[in-house]
Amino acid sequence: MSTVTPPDLPVLPSPVRWSSATAAFQIEGARAEGGRGRSVWDTWVDTPGKVKDGSTAEPGADSYHRWTEDVALAAGLGLDRYRFSISWTRVQPTGSGSANAAGLDYYSRLVDDLLEAGVTPFPTLYHWDLPVPLHEEGGWTGRDVVERFTDYAGIVAERLGDRVTNWYTVNEPAMTTLQGYAVGELAPGEFLLFDAIPTAHHQLLAHGYATRVFREHGATAVGVANNHTHVYPLTDSADDRAAAAAYDTLHNRLFADPVLTGRYPDLSAYGDVDLPVRDGDMDVIATRPDFYAVNFYNPTTIAAPAPDIPIPFEIVPTPDVPHTGFGPDWGIKPDALRDLLIDLADRYPNLPPVVISENGASFPEPDTADGGIDDVDRIAYIDGHIRAVGEAMSAGVRVDEYTVWSLVDNFEWADGYTQRFGLTHIDFETAKRTPKASYDWYRRVIAENRK
């Protein structure tokens, strides 16, 4: 892909908050320090062949030791908020029992430093790092993990709730269900196909209980960060449109409907799905969020499946669009974000204010940043998507916040260090931080939108 830096800066039709994001396992390193336990991602990276480049998350960006540099980067951008995640295994090494003081101390220092720098901390309680002992007991397939998660929320809220009032509960439950439990592309690597759907219910239930815990400790803004995609049928044929609707139900509505309507969508396209719903569960899940968080990266194009494919859809590349470093399935089509936001507002008349909780792109970049990184393709991607948000706002969608993924280059899960999303380059040999051209560009966008 070849682009040029947009000549003017995007300006939204009304003020929003500006943010950037990271996640604990992807940037902290220090896997064996401070009493931290093991998560399913530790098992994944320690299993040969699971990570594309054979790397691990150690030391990575080494933010456990260099968090003050990340706070300085956040402040240097002029961010209103910094989204980071709290590692469950740092707080509760086995996922249950008493708190680990060293882990809580680390996040307490991070919160204090952000506040001192004038950046509001916006933590995510769960960004995929399920403790291994809980996985061995069934993980998100069972109900016990919901109680453990609620206890974990209470521990964190008790320690940080005097200074932190904005929380994400669970990050991308769709990807945990679909990639982690259904097809095994991500940790914990289960291959349950549609038997993975109960994990959606348990994650959403955990979100609902955590929401109540945080509010009991003074939180003013709590929500779940759902990964959404705008779904296009490959053609206008009835079969392709039916396949697209089936995929939209699985990826989008399965995770949005319960939170926003208190009901699950019709899952009959996936056979006799047995959701483990008990009395009162839907009321907990539908505890009204203060905002609705949308992680968005790319559209998804769907075709009717071939006769020998045992699922009701086939994902195909979106035609006639460029793509990010992840390849053709990660097409770049900013107006898909606009259309998604408008569709969400139409589908859910009671939609809370929207927060774009992740949006960004990876592109091939060198391991070292000598001479800087002129990442014009990333600038073009973010520029297009900010403008798409503005178009949705002009169409009547209330968007209160926009977040770039990510503040720094990170360990990109099963792709290791082959994908770089950061506004800041990380030399993974030295952890040296070098702001890219996109960092300065985003800083100027934020300043321009505050005029």
TrEMBL record:
Binding residues for substrate, per the UniProt record? 26, 127, 171, 297, 405, 412-413
The transmembrane residues are: none
Give, as one word, the top-level EC class: hydrolase
A single GO cellular-component term on record: cytosol
Catalytic residues (positions): 172, 358
Which InterPro entries did the record assign?
GH (IPR017853), Glyco_hydro_1 (IPR001360), Glyco_hydro_1_AS (IPR018120), Glyco_hydro_1_beta-glucosidase (IPR017736)
**A single Pfam family, by name?**
Glyco_hydro_1
Query: Which reaction equation describes what this protein catalyses?
Result: Hydrolysis of terminal, non-reducing beta-D-glucosyl residues with release of beta-D-glucose
Q: Name one GO biological process term.
A: cellulose catabolic process
Q: What family is this protein classified in?
A: Belongs to the glycosyl hydrolase 1 family.
Q: What is this protein called?
A: Beta-glucosidase
State the species of origin: Gordonia spumicola
